[in-house]
Write a structure and sequence with these properties.
Blueprint: E1 46-48, H1 69-72, E2 86-90, E3 100-105, E4 108-114, H2 125-128, H3 139-149, H4 151-156, H5 190-195, E5 210-213, H6 233-259, E6 264-265, H7 272-278, H8 280-309, H9 317-320, H10 334-337, H11 341-362, E7 365-372, E8 375-382, H12 384-408, H13 426-429, E9 457-463, E10 469-474, H14 491-494, H15 500-521, H16 523-526, H17 536-558, H18 562-565, H19 582-618, E11 624-625, H20 639-648, H21 652-663, H22 666-673, E12 675-680, E13 685-690, H23 692-713, H24 728-732, H25 752-760, E14 771-778, E15 784-790
Antiparallel strand pairs: 1-2, 2-3, 3-4, 5-9, 6-8, 7-8, 9-10, 11-14, 12-13, 14-15
Helix pairs in contact: 6-12, 8-11, 11-12, 11-19, 11-22, 17-23, 19-21, 19-22, 20-21, 21-23, 22-23
Length: 807
């Protein structure tokens, strides 16, 4: 500010405007070192049609370095006086070396411009159409300076918008915005686009939008036809073969025992033949059931991607379609709601098999008294009704597997590899144009309620004004809305006039932002969710129920030596002509069915702990390396494989839970064969008795199962999350602002090995291997978010993990 009260702009040795970026609260546009003019400018009075209204800028931060004490006591910027006709003149009188000529607006001095000693005086373009640099008009720079004086008010909405700007003063930035615009690629002719495979002819004019690319060059881009191994036709054909062998075996037993009066001579309770007919059928059944769990897991994690690749018409695939198995005690019909009838029917038939196969196998064979050659003998025979029911069950399972073969033999799933870990989501959403829908979703109670449903596609894309092809999830014909990958919108165009309604809206937004920031640090939000059956109330209910069942079982078994002495069946015992005995069926089918239900009840617990283990590791205050966190793939592993790998990774709770998921199969197997009807000559009656070695083994496994509930399944605090993790939308909400998506080293990996290597090795310029965490980090938008990111990143503050004292 000069003595005459006229605002001034300092100058540096430069002949063009320059932009400096500094992390300061000072207004960039109004900063006194934002630009300068170093040349002598002289002008005569010239009339302009611009009418400038007095503006008052907001006060800048007093922390900017380089301010003099005089300038800090004065307003940052004063006003440019409005006149009916504004004349822009330059002082040309008495210009001497070392003095300053001044740029005048009307009669008011605006900017002193130093004249270096020894330099000749130059004429202005307003004088004689000559410029400081021949052929370059300096009027745009003057206009730019005036425009910059008023820029802050227009951005923030504080200044008045009543200025009348004539057509000969276009508001055009001579200095670009903070983010540089990407260079526009050369446009291709229609003939060139037609020659490029997979590139449809699109008009390059207009907004840059997502264009689907169906068949890019297969030599440079991987084919999107990956199917998990267990869902490939040959793998499913092997399971179908097992089912057909099971059907053939049951049919043989039924037919042979009917024609030949039994299968084999009965050798008494506990003999080798007793094991073959009372326990071996269940053991064969559980092999198929365990493999069905692996198939189910692959179906759940693959179908959502396959549906997006086929461009189905459902818009809630990310929101509602689960990626974790649910088809255990109760059937899951979610795929029917999304038009996947083949998958829905398959899962329902698999559920029927998982629930009833073992109980039916346990009562398939029965000891029956036959008269052969006028001599009576006990022989093992097949129960006809049970055998033909089993044939139907395995025939339905075969149909289910055939439906899966049909579903996944289409050859196009949209996948390059199997998406089994959190890291596999990175290449899928790196360049997605729907991530803006997930704003603040990480703290939402239910992501499905806050994220806009859209019809999405998984595959190759290009932008309408760019021939580069990339891969991921996106919305067709929608623009790139990711702020880290595009030029932000011009704030001058973005800000509306400041009215009472807009003030209220700004206040509401401010309140929403404050509420969101508070929720990030709130323990009530961070530790709000766990799966419903592992909440404290339900865990207590589980423990009480299982303890009561166990105590009742032990009391009934040993009171008055009831198991050793046997007990009355209260039902007919002698087998019919078809081998059916009501008492034997009841005491084989019902105990095995109860054991099957207990086995199926454990499976959701196993699935949950497998899925949440990466988050438990990421919640460690020291973070975890990728191979022990975001690359973990427990939900896709076999039960015994999970146990072994969890032990090697020191995930002892998960190892035990996974082991019990397999060991609990002993309950239906043993319970279905431990009881049988025997004739007691001393009592002259038939009683139900138990094979005691099998009974004690059953009791031991039941005790392990019972006490695993209070010891193992109670989730500690680090396994609690802000919301569910069973859908793709739930997982994306923890990654949509992660700088991992913008890492150049992670851009478009071509294989799973490539991705894993890039996540494990030290980034360029760093010596330490990266560790990852789940906490509060600085997102790509510069704001705080809750989710998955590197624990330490050069140039950024470390992630804040709030579970430092949690186990």
């Amino acid at each position: 500010m000069t003595s005459s009260g006229v605002p001034s702009l300092r100058s540096v040795n430069s002949s063009r405007p320059q932009l400096q970026h500094a992390e300061s609260q000072q207004s960039v546009s109004a900063s006194d070192d934002f630009y300068s003019v170093d040349d002598q400018l002289e002008t005569r009075s010239d009339t302009s049609e611009v009418t400038v209204v007095r503006y008052q800028t907001r006060h800048q931060s007093r922390q900017a370095s380089g301010e003099s004490s005089v300038s800090r006591s004065q307003p940052d910027l004063e006003t440019v006086t409005a006149l009916p006709q504004m004349a822009v003149t330059r002082e040309t009188n008495d210009v001497r070396p070392g003095t300053a000529s001044t740029l005048r607006v009307g009669e008011s001095q605006v900017t002193p411009i130093n004249t270096r000693p020894g330099e000749p005086r130059r004429q202005s373009t307003m004088d004689s159409n000559s410029t400081t640099t021949p052929g370059v008009d300096d009027m745009p720079y003057i206009r730019f300076a005036i425009d910059q004086l008023t820029r802050d008010e227009e951005v923030t909405g504080i200044g008045r918008h009543g200025s009348v700007v004539s057509a000969d003063y276009p508001v055009e930035r001579l200095v670009p915005d903070e983010y540089p615009r990407p260079a526009e690629p050369p446009r291709q002719s229609d003939q060139e686009k037609e020659r490029r495979p997979g590139l449809a002819r699109e008009d390059s004019e207009g907004p840059d939008v997502f264009i689907a690319v169906d068949s890019p060059d297969v030599l440079h881009y991987p084919r999107l036809n990956y199917v998990p191994i267990v869902l490939r036709p040959w793998a499913l054909a092997l399971v179908i073969l097992c089912c057909l062998l099971m059907i053939a075996g049951v049919v043989f037993c039924n037919v042979w025992s009917k024609r030949q009066q039994g299968l084999w001579t009965y050798d008494g309770l506990g003999g080798p033949r007793y094991f073959v007919f009372q326990f071996l059928p269940q053991l064969l059944a559980i092999l198929i059931i365990v493999w069905m769990f692996v198939v189910q897991a692959a179906v759940y994690r693959t179908v959502p991607f396959s549906m997006m690749a086929s461009e189905c018409q459902h818009d809630r695939i990310l929101h509602d379609l689960p990626i974790l198995s649910r088809n255990f005690v109760l059937p899951d019909f979610s795929h029917f709601k999304h038009g996947e009838a083949l998958v829905g029917v398959s899962l329902f038939l698999i559920w029927l098999t998982n629930l009833f196969a073992i109980p039916l196998q346990s009562c398939l064979f029965q000891a029956k008294y036959f008269i052969i050659d006028r001599q009576g003998t006990w022989r093992w025979t097949a129960v006809q009704a049970v055998g033909w029911t089993l044939v139907v069950v395995y025939a339905l399972l075969t149909i289910a597997l055939l439906l899966l073969v049909i579903r996944f033999s289409r050859g196009y799933t949209g996948l390059i590899w199997d998406p089994v870990s959190l890291a596999d989501l990175i290449p899928l959403i790196q360049r997605s144009n729907v991530l803006h829908d997930f704003d603040r979703s990480e703290t939402a109670d239910a992501v499905r309620d806050v994220v806009t449903p859209r019809r999405l596609r998984l595959g190759y894309w290009r932008m309408s004004n760019n021939a580069e092809i990339f891969y991921g999830i996106g919305e067709k014909h929608a623009p790139m809305r990711n702020p880290s990958l595009q030029q932000p919108e011009n704030p001058r165009e973005k800000q509306p006039l400041l009215t009472t309604d807009s003030l209220d809206l700004e206040q509401q937004r401010s309140l929403v932002n404050e509420a969101f920031e508070r929720s990030l640090y709130s323990p009530f939000t961070r530790y709000r969710w766990t799966v419903w059956f592992l909440q404290d109330t339900f865990v207590l209910a589980w423990i009480v129920t299982i303890l009561v069942l166990f105590i009742a079982f032990v009391a009934v078994s040993f009171a008055h030596r009831g198991i050793e002495r046997g007990f009355l069946p209260h039902l007919p015992t002698l087998p019919s002509a078809n081998g059916f005995s009501p008492s034997n069926f009841l005491f084989s089918f019902i105990p095995s069915l109860i054991g099957t239900v207990l086995f199926l009840l454990w499976q959701p617990i196993d699935v949950y702990f497998r899925a949440v283990q990466p988050f438990a590791d990421l919640s460690s205050p020291q973070g975890r390396r990728a191979e022990h966190s975001i690359l973990l793939a427990y939900p896709s592993l076999l039960p015994l494989q999970t146990t072994i790998l969890a032990l090697s990774a020191r995930h002892y709770k998960l190892a035990w839970i996974s082991f019990m998921g397999l060991a609990s199969l002993s309950l239906p197997v043993l319970a279905g064969g431990v009881f049988t009807a025997l004739y007691y000559p001393s009592l002259n009656e038939v009683r139900i008795t138990a094979f005691m070695p099998a009974f004690y083994t059953l009791l031991g496994f039941f005790a392990l199962y019972t006490f695993s509930f209070p010891i193992a399944i109670w989730p500690r605090r680090k396994r609690y999350l802000p919301h569910d993790i069973s859908t793709l939308a739930d997982l994306i909400s923890f990654m949509y602002q992660s700088p991992l998506l913008a890492d150049k080293v992670l851009r478009e990996p071509r294989s799973k090995t490539d991705l894993a290597t890039l996540l494990i090795v030290s980034p360029p310029g760093e010596r330490e291997r990266p560790v990852y965490g789940f906490g509060i980090y600085r997102g790509r938008d510069g704001k705080e978010h809750l989710g998955i990111e590197r624990l330490r990143r050069p140039g950024r503050a470390d992630m804040l993990i709030t579970t430092a004292s949690m186990k």
